[in-house]
Amino acid sequence: xxxxxxxxxxxxxxxxxxxxxxxxxxxxxxxxxxxxxxxxxxxxxxxxxxxxxxxxxxxxxxxxxxxxxxxxxxxxxxxxxxxxxxxxxxxxxxxxxxxxxxxxxxxxxxxxxxxxxxxxxxxxxxxxxxxxxxxxxxxxxxxxxxxxxxxxxxxxxxxxxxxxxxxxxxxxxxxxxxxxxxxxxxxxxxxxxxxxxxxxxxxxxxxxxxxxxxxxxxxxxxxxxxxxxxxxxxxxxxxxxxxxxxxxxxxxxxxxxxxxxxxxxxxxxxxxxxxxxxxxxxxxxxxxxxxxxxxxxxxxxxxxxxxxxxxxxxxxxxxxxxxxxxxxxxxx
Length: 332
What we know:
- Helices cover 60% and strands 13% of the residues.
- By secondary structure, it is an alpha+beta fold.
- It folds into three domains: 2-82; 106-178, Signal transduction histidine kinase, dimerisation/phosphotransfer (DHp) domain (Helix Hairpins, Orthogonal Bundle); 186-329, Histidine kinase-like ATPase, C-terminal domain (Heat Shock Protein 90).
- The strands form two sheets. A five-stranded mixed sheet has the order 2-4-5-7-6, with helices on one face.
- A hairpin with a 3-residue loop joins strand 6 and strand 7 (321-329).
- The longest helix has 51 residues, at 93-143.
- The chain is elongated.
- The two termini are 56 Å apart.
């Protein structure tokens, strides 16, 4: 920047001196001024031009150099891990655009840093709970508080399965959010997946006193999906509905054909979600009042549906129930 300013100043100075030199030479040739007067004029003009150029150069450097210096200083602070720094939007329009873009970048970096910190705290909290339970059971077995029989050993094994499921959910979540999730797509009969997912949760539903109803008239085209991942979505949605539906309630699973694919609906007659909480239910580790899950099921479901090129949304009314709808493209 300084080199460019000096070059511009030198060019302007030489141009001015050259112009006045030519003018003086012409005036001398026609006899208006003498050679001595010509040199005096050139000297006076040179001093004047240098003064004006110096003042102009200082103003330009203040207007351009100072904002650039602010951006460089802020970039150094960001590289040191300070994402709270912001740059004043001043100077010429191009520099204001750069400062605005820099501030947007630091906003995103700061938000991502906060999400990372919250994620680490949430993961530590979620892993601590099942580990504490397992540790307590095993210590009770060793100390003789619990009898060393199959029943108590089975409870410890069940706790390890909960922990393993949580770890698998975290791995799936990390893969989907980083774009590293691998989908094994194939032409799939979604009706078979729906019945299979519901069948795997029938014991849980019976234990909770909840009835699951599957649409009887489902006739769907093949969809181009990863059947294991979409089954995981269905299991997450239905199991989540079971947890939030009181005894005697009903869960309905249905699907229909659309012009661009298929639409699957999972509706329950549970407690519902408040209007201010509904936009947050797909956020990772978000738990509504009374939730007993890890807060990852709906997040994973959303990420898997989006990875397939589909969409997912939720509608809910407190005291009436919640309906979650997702779409999937047709098979090519």
